[in-house]
Design a protein that fits this description.
By secondary structure, this protein is an alpha+beta fold. The protein contains three helices and ten strands. The protein has helices at about 25-45, 60-80, 155-160, and strands spanning about 15-20, 85, 90-95, 100, 105-115, 120-125, 135-140, 145-150, 160-165, 170-174. The strands form two sheets. The protein has a six-stranded mixed beta sheet. A hairpin with a 2-residue loop joins strand 7 and strand 8 (about 145-150). Helix 1 (about 25-45) crosses helix 2 (about 60-80). The longest helix is centred in the first third of the chain and has 24 residues, at about 25-45.
């Protein structure tokens, strides 16, 4: 992945941009996802947050979800010449944006990645994106990742709708 957005181009012009990860990138993304997932699983077990979600498949589901997330964050960071932090955090990311652009971090992007096409940006609570200035939606079907769109938060909020996917209402944008 060696494409970068031109420095003066508006990041909201990015739509339907597809990259193909090479084997080295895939392995690195899987390793980062594994680190995030292991840290989260261990932290939750240590803090006695054990519930039925921690069944035998929890680690695999967590690792897969983190892999999807890291893949999208990396693609968006590359596309906008931004920064993303793949390191695991003790208490999660505290709803901080996933990609930061600019020396002073004036652009803060919340990234959501799905394997489904067409993709839907969905969050259970709008507080999860409150610190972001922009939103990005990606679709990852290894080895290809597509950035469906990047939009300003104001435009996102105008388009948001509620939908129940069978596990509670979510705020969504297609």
């Amino acid at each position: 992945m060696d494409e970068f957005i031109e420095e003066n181009k508006n990041i909201t012009d990015i739509a339907d941009l597809t990259f193909e990860y090479n084997e080295m990138e895939i392995n690195a993304l899987k390793q980062m996802a594994h680190m995030r997932s292991d840290f989260k699983v261990r932290s939750n077990f240590r803090e006695s947050n054990i519930s039925k979600k921690f069944d035998g498949n929890y680690h695999q589901r967590s690792s897969t979800a983190h892999y999807m997330g890291v893949a999208g964050e990396y693609a968006v960071a590359q596309a906008v010449n931004g920064f993303f932090d793949p390191m695991p955090k003790m208490y999660g990311d505290k709803n901080d944006p996933d990609v930061i652009v600019g020396f002073s971090g004036e652009i803060k992007i919340a990234v959501k990645t799905t394997k489904y096409s067409p993709p839907i940006f969905k969050v259970s609570d709008l507080d999860l994106v409150k610190k972001a200035t922009h939103m990005a939606l990606c679709c990852f079907q290894e080895p290809k990742i597509s950035i469906a769109w990047i939009m300003e938060k104001e435009d996102f909020m105008k388009r948001v709708y509620r939908r129940n996917f069978g596990y509670g209402n979510h705020y969504c944008v297609n």
